[in-house]
Structures
1.
Amino acid sequence: MVDQAEYLRKLVSRDTRILMIASGRKEAGVSNLAVNLAVQLAAREQSVILMDADTRGTKYPVHSLMGVLPRYTFTDMLTGEHEIGDILTNTPYGIQLIAGVSGMADVADLGSDQRKRFIDGLEKLSWVDYIIIDAGAGSTEHIVDSILASEDVIVVVTPEKNSVKDTYGLVKGLSACPRSIIPNIHVVANRVISNSCGRSLAEALQSAAKRFLSLNVQYSGTVPEDEYVRKGMAASEQIPFSVRYPHCEASLGIKRIVEEISHQRVTNNRGSGVSGMIQRLFMQ
């Protein structure tokens, strides 16, 4: 039987960018942000796969925000019932969705057959430019371990007092890990009254992380509070707001973040692409 190490050695990946979206608190808009970032990256002719790894659930899961209904989930691949190609759900927006990516931080507990399917399945995604992962919200050890699989994590913060506190708690949880395995941390301010307020909110988080945790956090943009986003959610339009209302303030904020992300370079040495993600998962 070929061992796990040999499977890892066989992985040959392009420079797929692995980007996790998370927050310390629910209702921060993580899924909405993940969907619209993925859609706008695809609009720039990037190949994008969006993974729904939010195990705690949300009022608006990523598939509902795009008006699609996945037939199969990641679990169906692990059980051997379907291949990775079967569980990819096409969307009208140039991206593909993988639903039900729960337990990503628990891959070391998989049986040998499931572990092989996990590695073989993700290896087949190495053609893609971006893998965006909706990690959901929380500061539990499980969320932190999932984040450690990524090269970059965007933590989403809103002006609500508890959101600031809980998002700082998430960053603090990451700071307890060895520095060599912590991903690049970015902050995006969501649902703020202006870009300047968003930057101030992010700078407060940056300052606290630097002073008390000795962590560098990069500001990556602001998504302003916008009546068109609320209008679309209330009407259950199931169309990403950056598509339905491309010129609204929130959509312009998303496009600025995508511009920022597109010009960023991964600065850590943790291993890039899909192979790097798999190795980090199995090292935990």
2.
Amino acid sequence: MYGTADSEAKKESDSLNPLTAYAKSKVYMEQVIEKLSDNKFQGTCLRYSTACGMTPRLRLDLVLNDFVASALTTGRIEILSDGTPWRPLIDVQDMVRAIQWAVERDDDQGGNFVAVNVGRNEWNYQVVDVANRVSQRIPNTKIDINTEAAPDKRSYRVDFSLYESLAPNYLPQVDLDQSIDELAEGLKRMNFKDQNFRVSEMMRLKVLQNLQDKRLLDKNLYWKK
């Protein structure tokens, strides 16, 4: 939502400059929800960190999930950027905790409407550090970095001080090592060995493409009647 990053961690008060259609849709919906919010309707928009973690309907098109799946199936992690971009991470379990807070929060925790970054300040990571941590948790994993890659404009650090002040009892609890371990254990339980998972139905884009190929979705991604 914040667009190209600078050296400062992004706060909720910073200007929004979404670079993708996905990000633009988030900004638009925040604007709509804010207009709807009043004394009878409390609006809360959660600006999540980058999602990660093991789930029953697993997605592997997420940076940490991709790294763990690649490490287990190929023994390698390929970083498509130069490894320097910043990513804040949040496990899906902590995303659920944030939803619980949003549903139950009192008016003195943000008023009729609040948009808040959800994560922890100490869980802003550079991509190469995430890869290194995975290689430490999954031994014999090699890391390939694309040193010739163009700068990744999606690099960003985020300030989570507002969430910490509004929801101190709902701060993320699942750290990076726990997320990695749970992903690895879950994939092993699934007997997951697909080295070509990036073209599998564990990638959201692939699912959408398959639904379009089956003519279940139109070009605007609406279900056909």
3.
Amino acid sequence: MGVACRSIAESATPLVSALGLTDVALEEVPSQKARMQFLAAGETHVELLESTSPDGPIAKFIEKRGEGLHHIALLVSDLDVALTEARAAGLRLVDEFPRPGARGARIAFLHPKSTGGVLIELVERPTPNRQAGSA
């Protein structure tokens, strides 16, 4: 689950101290103009999203909707197949083709207008045979 916030430092502290979430990783993804802090709650991860630029997608999201739930991420084994199946099912795609994401993953988003109002991120974790950004 991705949560848009103005400050990762301010948002992460209460989640770690009060809820016992585990700090996993902090990463910046320049192509998305964002910094991501991953916190673990068992097998589930909360991804805090902070914009690194006033014109970045997270800054625009916060300006329009305020801080809060930005997207839900779903792990898929083959992103290319998942996009083909989503397209065939009539879902609107934000990304026609996979792009590099945090933690070396390949990602693509499904448009909220076709998913009940929720932005959905499809995530394919890197494998030894496939690195992020390769086809």
